[in-house]
Amino acid sequence: MNLLYAFGLFVLTAVAEVVGCYLPYLWLRQGKSPLLLVPAAGSLAVFAWLLTLHPTGAARTYAAYGGVYIAVALVWLWLVEGERPTTWDLVGALVAILGMAIIVLGPRR
């Protein structure tokens, strides 16, 4: 699988998960409509489906995906929630992305 394609798929997967978790947060913590649970469930279903599109084992896919998820969550924090990530947030995301790259690019038997 093309590395750029895989990374893009990880990003889409992370966005689907963040949306699926953020909408219930809005309902539970900010008093928004419980109807937000409907698109949240749909988003989480898309998230699970996107994970199946990766060609490697589920556990390895999910482990590598974690690094991208961290970076996407920080972008979400900045763009949607209006809170700029700290230097330490960015360093942590970089370490996570490096970990993801090691998992994805590492040699296989």
Quote the distance from N terminus to C terminus.
17 Å
What count of domains describes the coordinates?
1
Silhouette? flat
Q: Detail the poorly predicted runs.
A: none
Task: Quickly count the helices.
Answer: 4
DSSP strand content: under 5%
State mean pLDDT (0 to 100 scale). Answer: 91
- Strand count: 0
Subcellular location: Cell inner membrane
Family: Belongs to the UPF0060 family.
Membrane topology: Multi-pass membrane protein
Protein name: UPF0060 membrane protein MXAN_4406
Folded structure, characterized:
- This protein has helices at residues 3-30, 37-51, 58-79, 87-105.
- The radius of gyration is 15 Å and the shape is flat.
- It contains 4 helices and no strands.
- The mean pLDDT is 91.
- By secondary structure, it is mostly helical.
Chart the SSEs and their pairings.
Blueprint: H1 3-30, H2 37-51, H3 58-79, H4 87-105
